[in-house]
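Shipment paperwork, digital attachment
Item: protein structure file
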Amino acid sequence: MSKPPIPVGISARHIHLSKEDLNTLFGEGYELTHFKPLTQPGQFASNEFISLEGEKGSFPRVRVLGPVRGQTQIEVSLTDAAKLGVKAPVKDSGDLEGSAGITVVGPKGKVTLHNGVIVARRHIHMLPEDAAQYDVKDHDFVQIRVGDASRSLIFDQVHVRVTNTSKLECHLDTDEANASLAKTGDVCTIIK
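Attachment content:
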């Protein structure tokens, strides 16, 4: 029996800030303000932006996502990394060991990070009941088919992340989306 398709979300470059870096960039005691909720429960796009400055280039308006985290993390595509001149490794969110450094500039200050820049590994968020339906478990890797019929692609090594607070969604970055003509709101299919 075929499994239902999975919604796709395209992740553009963004930053998650630690409380310490938020204070440095926006001022002591600053709190992020909500622009809109994201699909994953408790996550939101804020009204705040920062600038990223790399060895070769910069991006002036990078959205801050909330809530604050224990460590600052910047997620970019491989194309973004090349423009910035940073060697960002493909990593799971939160795994910052060996990641690239960069300078982050806010309205009240700047922070030079020795690590924190990654290309997020493509992944699927699932609840335990979703995992049972798709016959997968946390930290499995699957193949998916995604994209416009004229240019659909099969992506290998898609990381399955199962938690009790997830909403079913596959996250791809802008390079992956552009290659397959996928956009937020499209669907993908696990083909194992």
